[in-house]
Specification:
14% strand; alpha+beta; five-stranded antiparallel β-sheet; membrane; UPF0353/GerABKA_families
Length: 479
């Protein structure tokens, strides 16, 4: 039952009498009446107008009177659901009760100036009395988001053909739909003084590593930054030794099936509002070489594919370095035929082997980076034509040898086999260190670089988990 106001002929406005029958009013009218009784000397109206006075899309309009007080509705026209705010632009006066009836069932909360400021910037509307210290927050957000689409950065050969998008609730729902158990928990926090970015930490309570979970919660709670824009930026901020770390300590993915698989293995997932990528941690070295499709194929095929990936990693890491070592320093190790063939291919090349190799590796990285940054419609054409034409011209000009072109091409192909994009970038960097080691001390320099790499990896941890160990399901956990 609604109590309709009577029109005041002098003020030409509608008044709602504050009677004891207010309990029969709608929930909004009842809350407005409570704000009237607790009114005091609040300055919410002045404070909000002062905070957003220079914002062109900020709207604060009077929608009626209640208990002899003006009722205002504030919102951002660019963020709120304008289809439910149409009355704010109506010139005809109408009953406040009738206007508020439209919001029956809308989630409502109450907040002070700080909470109302955050709610307005998030797309909600604020309803309050002039002179009150608090306002009623109406959830009228107009969320702009993409529809579910296939992953852009990860090729799906087998499995679900949808990926995360920029909506935090949608991403959490995609995980909930795949893990239907009460053990799936979600912890929420906000990060960023200016952005107030919402973050979900999702985990399975019965298998998660409690120490890792506590560490992540502590890092997020103590994080003091101006704001974050993406999951990758959050990963960098979570790593206190990020300037000393070359290898990634967490997996970035946009595939819900990969996230749910890792959650069931005892890992946890971080979702960031506005980012289509999920952060899976802790991540050990072997995790970056496994594809989600490995769970869908025959185990023998999976082992074979993983073997190919590790072989490709080895080729990418040491093949150019061995070329430098065996053609410039450890020449006596080769068979005579190989040495003669290498010398014949370098006939007329004016540069030392080290300079020649570095030049070709850098050129291949130029082409790879161009293919990544260019629009997809022309990237494949540009990289193919650029690689073929440039390679042929370099050979004819006797700048590099034929054998080196083959080696560099094999190295580039091997790098493309890497599953994870972050690890692929690391592999591209590491091959330069082994080439330098080969130029200094030949095969011994390569061995020294690889030994240093193993020692470095053994010293790393991913949120308490040693980097060179496999993260198996805990005892009693899900297989």
């Amino acid at each position: 039952m609604y109590i309709f106001p009577e029109k005041d002929e002098q003020t030409n406005s509608y008044q709602i009498s504050c009677q004891k029958g207010a309990s029969a009013m709608s929930r909004l009218l009842t809350n407005l009446h409570r704000l009237h009784t607790e009114k005091g000397s609040g300055r919410l109206f002045e404070e909000l107008n002062d905070l957003f006075k220079d914002s062109f899309d900020y709207v604060c309009t009077k929608i009626g009177n209640s208990c002899d007080n003006e009722v205002y509705l504030c919102y951002f026209a660019t963020l709120s659901l304008n289809s439910r705010l149409h009355f704010a632009f109506d010139e005809d006066e109408s009953s406040l009760a009738i206007r508020l009836k439209e919001y029956e069932g809308t989630p409502i909360s109450e907040g002070d100036t700080k909470k109302c400021e955050l709610a307005l910037c998030s797309g909600s509307a604020v309803l309050f009395l002039r002179g009150s210290a608090t306002g009623l927050i109406l959830d009228l957000q107009e969320v702009q988001q993409r529809s579910l689409d296939s992953p852009f950065t990860e090729t799906v050969l087998q499995g679900p053909l949808y990926a995360f998008n920029e909506n935090l609730e949608v991403n959490a729902a995609l995980i909930r739909q795949r893990i239907r158990t009460s053990q799936l928990k979600a912890w929420e926090t906000t990060v960023g003084r200016s952005t107030n970015t919402r973050i979900f930490v999702i985990y399975c309570a019965d298998v998660v590593d409690e120490s890792c979970l506590a560490q992540v919660k502590k890092l997020l709670t103590e994080m003091d930054v101006e704001g974050i824009q993406d999951t990758g930026e959050l990963l960098r901020l979570l790593d206190k030794k990020r300037y000393m770390r070359l290898f990634p300590k967490a997996i970035l993915t946009e595939r819900p099936d990969r996230v749910t698989s890792d959650l069931l293995r005892g890992k946890l997932t971080i979702l960031v509002d506005g980012s289509p990528f999920a952060l899976v941690l802790p991540a050990v070295y072997t995790d970056f070489w496994h594809s989600p499709e490995d769970s869908y194929v025959n185990p023998y095929v999976s082992v074979f594919q993983n073997t190919l990936r590790f072989l490709a990693m080895t080729v990418n890491l040491v093949l150019p370095a061995f070329y430098v070592a065996l053609t410039s320093i450890n020449v006596d190790v080769n068979r005579l035929e190989i040495s003669l063939a290498a010398a014949a291919s370098r006939e007329g090349v004016p540069y030392p082997v080290f300079i020649e190799t570095m030049l070709m590796l850098i050129m291949i990285d130029f082409i790879t980076e161009a293919g990544t940054r260019l629009p997809k419609a022309i990237s494949s054409t540009v990289t193919m034509v650029g690689g073929v034409v440039l390679g042929q011209a370099i050979i004819q000009a006797n700048i590099v040898s034929n054998l080196l072109v083959i080696i560099v091409a094999a190295t580039a192909i091997a790098n493309f086999i890497v599953i994870d994009y972050q690890m692929g970038l690391v592999q591209r960097v590491l091959k330069y260190f082994t080439v330098v080691g080969a130029a200094v001390a030949g095969v011994l320099g390569i061995v020294f670089c690889l030994a240093c790499l193993v020692f470095y990896l053994s010293s790393l941890e991913s949120f308490g988990t040693p980097y060179l160990t496999s993260l198996l399901p805990r005892k009693g956990g899900r297989k």
